[in-house]
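REQUEST ID: PR-0412
SUBMITTED BY: lab tech R.K.
PRIORITY: routine
TASK: structure prediction, single protein chain
INPUT:
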Amino acid sequence: MHRRNFLLAAAGGLAAGLSRVATESRPPNIVFILTDDLGWGDLSCYGNQRLKTPNLDRLAAQGTLFTQFYVNGPVCSPSRAAFMTGHFPARHRIHGHLATPEENQRRGMPNFLDPSIPTVASLLKKAGYRTAHFGKWHLGSGPGAPLPEAYGFDVVKAVNSNNPHWREDKIPYFRAHSTGLIVDEALQFIKQDLSRPFYVNVWTLLPHATLDPTKEQLEPFMKLSPQTASGHLGAH
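STATUS: complete
OUTPUT:
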């Protein structure tokens, strides 16, 4: 599988937390972190010798590290449809990434996920949760596609959606800074009201597609790149 969306091991605590809902007076808070195109072998907690991921390793150590977990689709839209609905994405004819209406029609796909389908966000909202989505959506952004709010979210700041909150062409080095922007929005939402349980999607754009890193971000990885005699990056 060349493209993979990876559910962070931190979400593994969700199953155990939900099993205690019936016996606890307060339901668990849920932060769903979904990274884009990250493979399991990219993390040092799974044995990667070159890339260091200490914060993700800590989440894995404090939660559950899955070794037999598979997403329902190898690309953006079907995997997200499965996560949100609990259904196989083919049930909703979402078997590839949602693109232009013409491309979707050619592949026998809809232009967006049907908003009448119950989602984890809409169910938790009915149960009294505050709900929010921050980051990549990619469940429909073309003509007629509903906003992410239609799927059960109180607060949305998204990209790859209608009415995007961030515009890559308006923010210098946006993709390189996008994870920080997404996480900051999520933290702000969480802190607004701690009296109620919350469900928050933190869906990053990275590491998928061109990063276009800043010089400061690139510096720690210079030793891993091809070098010329002058010590500068070679062509690649």
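NOTES: The mean pLDDT is 86.
REVIEWED BY: pending
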